[in-house]
Amino acid sequence: MKTSAPSLFSAALAIARKDLAAEFRSRELISAMLVFAMLVILIFNFALELDVGVRQSVTAGVLWTTFAFAGTLGLNRSMAVEKDRGCMDGLLLAPVDRSAIFFGKALSNLAFMLLVEAIVLPLYALLYNETRVFKLEFLGVLALGSIGYIAVGTLLSAMSAQTRTRDVLLPILLFPVAVPVLLASVKASGGIIAGLPFEEILVPLNLLIVYDVIFVAVSFMIFDFIVEE
Amino acid sequence: MQSKPIALTVLDVLSVIGIGAATYFALVFAPTEAVMGNVQRVFYFHVGTAWVGMVGFVLAAVAGVVFLITKDLKWDRLEFAAVEVSAMFFFITIALGSIWARPAWNTWWTWDPRLTTAAVTELVYIAYFMLRAGIEDPEKRARFGAVYALLGGLSAPVTFMVIRLFRTIHPVVIGNQSAAAQGGFDMESGMLIAMFVAIGAFTILFVDLIWHRVRLAKLEATVEEIKLKNSI
Asked: Does residue B1 belong to any structural domain of this protein?
């Protein structure tokens, strides 16, 4: 019988699988994120009068704002569950590298966010007759942006869950730090929708990739300091 | 209670003299700019405060990393002092820039990339204070503060990079500037001297204030300890 500690990769996958299994049984997180996302789009609809002319220039912004807001909802919940029921202590006791916990939580958070995006995008395309959001480049930018946002978001949600103000604090901590990722994503995806030449999209795209790498690497390295007791 | 070190008193005097000198150099010594006139003189203090603002945020990030490695609370006090002093200086930078922008750009504020990132940087450090306020355990507060100062320090370089990546109307006085920049000027030697005097003066003031703040933080920690002892 094998008794050695599991590798980082398999431990992270196990944690992500646990989150996904719990979510598929309760469906409370995904449904909340989805309804919330649709409400945000609805509010944008009459706040910005999303007619044909306006839509062209604001689609990227509206979608990213929606995903960022829905993302904080999911991040808050996924860490609060661990904290409230004392699961975090159990996870910390497990004989695995602490970074595996970070990667596991980040993976499941990313899965939730991508799932919400996968449902909201077709709905948005249908409601506003905007098929350009299905361009391959657009989807790529969406994935890259979500990775950076979730990486730093997972780290900060682990932090805010341990403070007195909890849920209120996460967006305040997360939004200003995530600005480089959000800014680059909006610029790049807005450029793709407007059909700009690739060279012009390359500048924000490079910024996005650089910050993805930085945020994933740094969050991975300093997660240990957040959870140590 | 430790007595005030002599070096600190010297630094106090030096910073008063330095700010006085910088004021003289900015308002009297430097030649009047041909196009913008006297309002350009705000520039010297704008650069001086921006410089110490940025240095302080980098210093805070470095002190945060050192704290995470050594677990010595004195680095946490340095980090907190650096953020607090720099946040104030950075706010002054934005306010001074705004005063200059009114006549130069005909608006107090515009959502230019440079200005936006400056506002974001300021918000990061306001969030830093809110984070610390929400944690009671001093050790955990220090740990989380260090992590957040490090993350904030990573987003600060964008402020510098962004003017070279995106088109901005904010002038770059040193190095090449964007073709869209408005209100730039070529510096004469008198202006250059005034700028470096301002940078030097604010650097001295910055070190002085941080030193005071670190001493204050040490007293705060002592008070907290005494309170805790009496309550038991």
From this structure: no
